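Final report, closing paragraph on structural work. Over the funding period we assembled a curated collection of sequence-structure pairs, and we close with a single example.
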Amino acid sequence: MILSQSDQVIHAQVWSKADNKSVFCSFVYAKNKYQERRSLWEDLCRHKLLCTNNPWFVMGDFNSALHGDDSLFGTSSLSIGMREFYECVQTTELVDVKGHGLHYTWNQKPKEGVGLLRKIDRVMCNLKCLEVIPDAYVIYHPHRLSDHTPCILKFPNTSKSYRPKPFKFANFITSKPEFKDCVEGEWAKRIEGYTMFSVTTKLKNLKPGLRKILFQQGNLHTKVVELR
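Its predicted structure, as stored:
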């Protein structure tokens, strides 16, 4: 179901017939010039208010790298366009969905010499997705006719994916700089009611933020195996 659209993004609500659940999806096709992409970043920031408590995927061609290692053979400095894209991602609290396949999703076919490879196509999600659809992943296929790689979002075990996993607190995340900011941010909020109700509510509200910090560390089981 189309909710709204512009010349750079289509906002939709997608229903799964298998389990009668829905997710919000925003399909992006960004402009080439960073000045023209500013309206897209503003649009996504506004749409975040609608999706805060619902799973939200944002995917497509953003026409901009996000991190320094998203470009090969190009400049390592952050451009204005990259910085504005990064600020949008921080405001909307989006993270990359774990992916398999190619890292660089776009290749510039040069007339001579070495071409430029960049990751400008990506699939991201909000914190609610990490909670209710933790097994979602993306496959970045090899390039074919287009100079962009196809990005396929997968939902394994659809009927079970909406059952959130039990919350587990990993002690090591307390050493991460984001941990203190996350706790201070939630604890500063005012919760009306009895003191214990306020405490338990704040603890509950901490879960998405702590899950995000843990998610950003990658697959811990794989890392342990590699280190051994």
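Residues 171-227 form one domain. The mean pLDDT is 85. We thank the funder for supporting this effort.
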